[in-house]
Design brief:
Elements (H helix, E strand, L loop, with lengths): L2 H17 L6 H39 L2 H30 L21 H7 L5 H5 L5 H18 L4 H39 L2 H4 L3 H27 L3 H7 L1 H10 L6 H11 L4 H14 L2 H17 L6 H14 L9 H12 L15 H26 L13
Length: 406
């Protein structure tokens, strides 16, 4: 049985079985442990994979290509997808009006939404110490920065650093082998983790926001199937259905965890084994994508902005909505290391747009996890989109063999 079929089957079975398990059932605890084991293994792999693969990629790109040019192209593509995503979200919110009739009485701001200042964001890229680097969590730009320093050191040392270069290549290959081994059992983790989450998901939490969630799903579907898949087709001539088929495992992990970082190891294997991309080229791009690929979060933030405005009975002009789209796009540049992407972007919009209540994001706190799951499918596939396109344009893609998919 094909790997992606196992992943989909695990997802569907987990949803069905988890829906019938009582929250106080002993089986729910078993599902939690099994599911979290796989999620933590993937989280563990993110830092070393990005570090060692990043050093290899930077050495190759520094030697054979313009590293700075590729970086500018990469960020430009991600910003374009984020801009389109925010626009799609605003249009969907305008047309379908998910916030109409929502009762906002009694909602108060329940937590502080952290969004870094520009200086804080830039300083966060440079770790204070090696221990601080290891504790950096999901600050991917810090990992890429260290990769660049190590790569440049090896490049400048030349023959004297051959042993270190060989060690890094060996470690990188070992970690990728380990990732493939974990992927073989990942459908079990998908089944267990989604089953555990469904065991605690009640209709009382979802129903008041059902229309909002459906609108976000529709907007994310447009972003993935129409915008991203067709962009791949027009720029690389790859059949969009083959592309979507190839990245299904990464999309499922993005949905399962609600975390674009956790999906990174799976995405790397999909790009290499399913789409034939060169690991030493796409690793640098996907690393930037983990930090900047927020097109799904932009969709959810656009819809959520209209949701809050409509809930408070506010009418946003077309001019103001254009400003909001641009603000969401610009704000996404400082999202590295921050979870709950759309909620953070929404908080920035509410803090900077006149007349929108600053505590409006409190309305969405109870469904933040569900929103993150939906939006991260588009975030992950957006990363795959840009990574494959630029790998193709750099001449670093082998022929795609449909039968060899994971």
């Amino acid at each position: 049985m094909k790997f992606w079929i196992k992943m989909v089957a695990g997802l569907i079975m987990g949803i069905i079985i988890g829906s019938y398990i009582s929250p106080d059932s002993i089986f729910l605890g078993v599902l939690r442990v099994v599911g979290l084991v796989f999620i933590r293994l993937l989280n563990f792999l993110v830092l070393p994979l990005l570090l060692f693969s990043g050093v290899r990629a930077i050495l190759l790109l520094r030697k054979n290509r313009g590293l700075f040019i590729i970086m500018i192209k990469t960020i430009g593509y991600f910003m374009l997808l984020t801009l389109i995503g925010a626009a799609v979200g605003m249009v969907m919110g305008d047309v379908l009006k998910p916030g109409a009739g929502i009762n906002v009485a009694g909602y108060e701001s329940a937590k502080h939404i952290r969004y870094p200042s520009t200086s804080e964001f830039l300083l966060g890229i440079v770790p204070e110490s090696f221990l601080d680097f290891l504790r950096s969590g999901y600050a991917v730009l810090a990992i890429l920065f260290i990769s660049y320093l190590v790569g440049m050191g090896i490049f400048l040392a030349r023959d004297e650093a051959d042993e270190l270069h060989s060690l890094i290549i060996s470690l990188d290959n070992t970690l990728h082998r380990l990732t493939v081994m974990i992927l073989e059992f990942l459908p079990i983790g998908v089944f267990a983790y989604i089953g555990y989450n469904m065991g605690f998901l009640t209709s009382s939490v979802v129903m008041p926001y059902l229309k909002l969630l459906l609108v976000v799903v529709a907007g994310s579907f447009i972003q993935v199937v129409i915008v991203q898949a067709l962009m791949v087709y027009f720029l690389t001539k790859l059949n969009p259905f083959i592309f979507l088929h190839a990245v299904i495992p990464a999309g499922i992990v993005g949905f399962l965890s609600g975390n674009r970082y956790t999906a990174q190891p799976v995405l790397a294997e999909c790009l290499e084994h399913n789409l034939g991309a060169d690991r030493e080229v796409f690793t640098f791009i996907t690393g930037l994508g983990v930090a900047f690929s927020l097109s799904g979060s932009a969709v959810a933030a656009g819809v959520s902005t209209l949701f809050v405005a409509q809930a408070y009975g506010l009418d946003l002009s077309v001019y103001l909505q254009i400003i909001i789209v641009l603000l969401i796009t610009a704000s996404s540049l400082k999202m590295d290391g921050l979870m709950d992407g759309s909620l953070v972007l929404l908080s920035v919009v509410l803090a900077n747009i006149v007349r929108l209540p600053a505590e409006g994001y409190a309305i969405l706190l109870s469904i933040t996890a569900v929103l993150s799951q939906i939006e991260n499918v588009a975030n992950v596939t957006g990363n795959a989109t840009v990574s494959y396109i630029l790998s193709y344009l750099e001449g670093s893609v082998e022929s795609v063999n449909f039968r060899d998919f994971l």
